[in-house]
Amino acid sequence: MKKRTSLTVIAATLATLFAASAPAQTPAKRPNIVILLGDDLGFSDTGAFGSEIKTPNIDALASDGVRFTNFYTHATSSPTRSMLLTGVDNHLNGLGNMDEYTAPNQMGVPGYEGYLSKQVATLPQLLKGAGYHTYMVGKWHLGKAPDLIPAARGFERDFTLLDGAASYWDMTNFTAVAPKSVFTEDGRYLTELPKDYYATKTYTDKLINFIDANRGDGKPFFAYVAHQAPHDPFHLPKEWRNRHVGEYDQGWDAVRQARLKRQIEMGIMPAGTQLSERMWFLPDPTVLAPAARAIQGKKMELYAGMVENLDHHIGRLVQHLKDIGEYENTIFVTFGDNGAEGTDLFKMIAGSPGSRDYLFAATAWSQTHPNAWGDPGSYVGYGPMWAQVSMTPFSQYKGWMAEGGIRNGLIVSGPPVKRAKGSINNGLMHVADIMPTMLELAGASYPEKLDGKTLPPLTGKSWSKVLANQAESPRTEQDYLGWEIFGNHAIRQGEWKIRWQHKSFGKGDWELFNVVKDPAERKDLAASNPDKLKSMLALWDRYAKDNNVILPNRTMFETLEDQLPPRVPDDAGYPPLIYKKQFLPPKDMLAEPKP
């Protein structure tokens, strides 16, 4: 008995000595997080999603990570950004409508403040509390008062445009009553911009400086890189303007067809996918005169240059992280914030001849000659025809509930991604998922209360199991997603989607689509599937109630039906009259007239 006891004591002593001499296990290093957001960047605008536009740096992130083809944002900028930063539905976080278009019946209602509500927590706020550095560069669009700017909502360092859009060269804004854009740097309002300012370059320079200033302290960082590009106006340095000269003179239909072909070859879209109809008020580009095609093509050339310049500066950031040894420990999340912009924003802003804003636009944005496009003082957008190209193969664009308004290409790469490099996933993802996902991957949590306030429950769902290759989607077939903006609204559950849109883009009534079999939303199934429509309408009622949705009594679309021609089908080759070429008789039957 004594012998056994002695052996036990000796074994315990040796175990203690071994444990004391063994090196302590180092806790896993928490990952850096970089969100790369393109403003109005379309689903198909990068090489990784089928574009002819050269985006090698974004494509490299896709090759090193995973692409998601069923990722949803909101239909416009600030609602998407509000959900990205809070994980909470936009009708509860303050952006129930865009500040610029809050309807009379929404004013003063909680959830419709037009800025990021103080009743919600932000991702940088919680990550900062968990020991992260938090940096932001780019566009905010979520409030301008001192208690609403990035420095007040969790960002330690920032260089930020507070407005929704602006010149890329200077502080010129869009209306006579707000002629100057507002910027902050580290919580202070700027009186002027840095010398040699160009938005995309300067944002990248500032972020690299933020990262370097805190290198070596052992803390991870969260960087929200909210680029303006490629939002109009299309401003870019001269050396980036002529990289696609003449390439787009072939017209929008041919470019869309080529992109879809590549998407099918890459596996982004399934075989047999059709393009959505060319919007009924747009011409077939082949019937345009060569000069008209060239001038419209030049707009797309500028847009392509904007995207390539954006990719270049993303590459600068990625290379810097490689140079300082942080790339391998960084999560990258890359996407566009909504559908591509097909509306003529400049026309909306300037208004009618003789008005105050029309005069301001004519003077502040006076560089209208095509040779000056891209310079300070020029304003170029590319219109609905090219917006449809950016959203290949989907229908419509920004502001609408068709897939072209709310679906975008998502790329995620970095340490948590255990799926095959360069792989493609079709799981149902949402921008509100970013908050819970990044909190989980950072080892942080979402509290029930913060600063004595009860926080709303998260709308989003974590992607951690999907990224780890343990699940194909964060959602079951019973889960659903909901949207509403400007009165347009939609629900998606599984393969099915319902949408209600103002005329003429919609029917002013509910439409039903199977968006897996019909991603271009060509066939409305509402009449032939009344039971499915009924069950989906019940989900809409639930979503509207749970999220305090107030349909607006005024919208920017209230006269749209009167402004557009009647909606007609898009049938190839109709009417035959304008496609019939000159008849050429057989050469052996040609003859001169007889005397």
Automatic annotation (TrEMBL):
SUPFAM superfamilies listed in its UniProt record: Alkaline phosphatase-like
InterPro entries tied to this protein: Alkaline_phosphatase_core_sf, Sulfatase, Sulfatase_CS, Sulfatase_N
Keyword Ribonucleoprotein included in the entry's annotation: no
Domain of life of the organism encoding this protein: Bacteria
CDD domains: PAS_like (cd16025)
Record domain Sulfatase N-terminal: where: 31-444
Signal peptide: 1-24
Keyword terms, alphabetized: Calcium, Hydrolase, Metal-binding, Signal
Record family assignment: Belongs to the sulfatase family.
Protein's UniProt name: Arylsulfatase
Organism the protein comes from: Uliginosibacterium aquaticum
